[in-house]
Amino acid sequence: MIITYHGLEQFKVQFGDVTLGFNPVSKESKVKSNKFGADVGLLTINHPDMNGGELLAYGERKPFLITGPGEYEVKDVFIKGFPATSSYGGTESINTIYRVTLEGMNLTFLGALSSPDVSGETREAIQDTNILFVPIGGGEVLDPENAYKLAVKFQPNIIIPMHFSDTKSPELKAFLKEGGSEDAEMVDKYTVKKKDLDLSEGKIVVITPSL
Predict the structure, then answer these.
(1) How far apart are CA 64 and CA 79, in angstroms?
(2) pLDDT digit string (tens) for 98-150?
(3) What are phi and psi for residue 113, nearest 5 degrees?
């Protein structure tokens, strides 16, 4: 599996011939968008910063878009969406937390989560997370302190922070300090296999935004 970060909450996850796209920025956003082809698009919230599903259509790839809670199966990828709330954009709205199972690994994508108060049902459903994507930017999403405290409750093997501008941002520095990981691994792309995860517990991996 290869994970690439395109800034804000845009991620590209590749495994075999299948590509997933998480929270692509739309053309209506003030944030720079990145266009790439995906087979499945997962959008956590209906906001221009994260609902650019049309930008995942590229070449022969026409994505199956998932925009809310429910259970889905696409190209041997099993996806469950759980409702949570977010104040992103200044108004309270639904932010879907996605649990994705593929290649024997469980990924949890928290999206634009604003509060660490996640329902007991959702916590139980995503408790065996291998890779956790958590927003750390503060303001309308979790701040670094609450982001880390929530992340470790799920006991993931790998924690991937998102919603920061660059590797020198104060939010990222605060998050790494909170986790005692000032020397955390920083990579342009993160390549991981299931066997690698068994050797890690709560490890923070910082993927450099590719803008």
Answers:
(1) 12
(2) 999 998 999 999 999 999 999 998 999 888 999 999 999 999 999 999 999 99
(3) -65, 130
Taking the model in full, what pTM does it have?
0.96
Query: Are the CB atoms for 74 and 86 separated by under 8 Å?
Result: no
- Answer yes or no: are the C-beta atoms of 96 and 44 closer than 8 Å: yes
CA distance 46 to 49: 9
Distances in Å between the Cα of 152 and the Cα atoms of 6, 9, 111, 132, 194 are 24, 20, 17, 10, 20
The token duo for 176 is 């790494």
With a CB cutoff of 8 Å and minimum separation 6, the contacts of 97 are 44, 81, 82, 83, 84, 108, 109, 110, 111, 113, 118, 122, 126
All residues at 6 or more sequence positions from 203 whose CB lies less than 8 Å from its CB, including other chains: 157, 158, 159, 181, 184, 185
Helix, strand, coil percentages, rounded to 5, for the chain: 15, 35, 50
Residue pLDDT, tens place only, 65-106: 999 999 999 999 999 999 999 999 999 999 999 999 998 999
First to last CA, the chain: 21
- Kindly state the average pLDDT of the residues 29-45: 93
Q: By three-state DSSP, how is residue 209 classified?
A: coil
